[in-house]
Amino acid sequence: MPDIPSSIPFLSHVTPKTMKQLYFTSLAFISGIIVFGGLIAPTLELKLGLGGTSYEDFICNMHLPLQLSQVDPIVASFSGGAVGVISALMLIEANNVEQQEKKRCKYCHGNGYLACARCSASGVCLSIDPISVSSASGHTLKVPTTERCPNCSGSGKVMCPTCLCTGMLMASEHDPRIDPFD
Length: 182
What we know:
Elements: H1 19-46, H2 55-61, H3 73-103, E1 113-115, E2 124-127, E3 145-148, E4 157-159
Antiparallel strand pairs: 1-4, 2-3
Helix pairs in contact: 1-3
């Protein structure tokens, strides 16, 4: 099946087989962001003292409940936003692949060509000349020879008549490929 152009800019072409790889990549990104927001960022802030005044000191100075200091709002906003964006992009890409698959020709699977039935997609046919065998003739039988397939001209594939080599589902009478006055 041919590649499907991605709906996300700067992302390579996608096939239904590479969607699983895209799922694993986004899952790895989401897991990394959650680990960063839940473990690494609080450790850096509280244990090492990076970032100036800790968020807990700020909450104490403002005389607010200490439960608020358990989650840093900046890290939580970043982590939640990043997870949301990655999830939304994954849904967009999954829907794009699903829609593009529905538009593909059902017979040639989007290639535009079918395997030649005469030569079984090999491009070569056996040339067997009819032989009249009579008891009086002393002719020996000829060995079958191979020749280039006349249907596919040796390519092993023929044009898909359903989609007219476009690979897309056949449209109705509004398709400009079909001349109504032909």
